[in-house]
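Lecture 7 notes: from sequence to structure.

We start with a single chain of 373 residues. Read the sequence below before looking at the structure.
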Amino acid sequence: MTGLQDRLTPEQVEEFGRELDALRQRIVDDLGETDVEYIRNIIKTQRALEVTGRGLLFAGFLPPAWLAGVAALSLAKILDNMEIGHNVMHGQYDWTRIPELSSQRFEWDTVAPAENWRHSHNYIHHTFTNIIDKDRDVGYGVLRMDTAQKWHPYYLGNPVYATLLALFFQWGVMLHDLEIERVVKGERSWAENVPVLRKIVRKAARQVGKDYLLFPALTGPLAPLTLLGNASANLVRNLWAFSIIFCGHFPADVESFTEEETEGESRGQWYLRQILGSANISGGPLFHLLSGNLSHQIEHHLFPDIPARRYPQIAGEVRDICERYGLPYHTGPLHRQLWSVAKKIVKLALPDKLGQPGPRADSLDHDKRLRAA
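Now the structure, written as tokens:
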């Protein structure tokens, strides 16, 4: 990739940052009751879908009722995960001072504890977006998603690992916080993981108990069908979340960076990195809603603490700013972004140039040698 420093002149970077700061401030100044009403209506819709879904599963002996129950429960879990949980826990509604919308109090319907996720996602991922060896979301500790990750025979299983991660995505996000790859490298001890593991066990036990013990038991002889229905809804949510998140971070044109490139970066350079390291997914209003507006991943990475419902409103202006500064604005329909991600996963499973490390891996090794010296 072209270095961050080569994209714009220092003067352009400064002005670029000022423009985006001004855009952000304009939205912040406009936040108000319509935003609160919006998220409260989404929460009401999510709860209604969950009650409807679980109620229909009580009539699971009728195939149409079972399918409708799974569909309603799947939508409820998607809304809880994407448009409500992810966005509320980003602090997008902390300005309201409403307890149920507090990022520090909210807990979502997934096995990953909110407290662990806020650290690994809000802090690590959004601070060090696409910085190799800093942003642990690049590959989630199991995948090779960039040529800067030196190839190893282990990565021949890339497509298998990606498939398993998609199927069990909530569990992958949960285990992500244990930083197993750092434990294996000796950079983190198992003792350091004890507090994290306790939270994981407590949260996972509650989720498993609710979906696979309590609610099935309440349906009596229909318990196996209810258990299957809950598992199906979780599977739908997992596949959907994986698809949206990977399409926003790993299509072919999205770039990664070294620690040296980003050392001492200014606000404008941070904005620049977010744009180069993200991709949007085009679609209609319902699609954007079900994606938690993470279909506007570029806008989300620029302004993670602004209510996501505002991203479609500013996307055109952000794209316009990018065009004026000669910067890419990566976007495309879901099927195209998914295909791009799938090709990358398969390609990076194989050795670079018949076993030779890719140029980014060479560069990263060189940077590490310089740091060691």
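Residues 4-17+108-297+311-347 form one domain. Keep this in mind for problem set 3.
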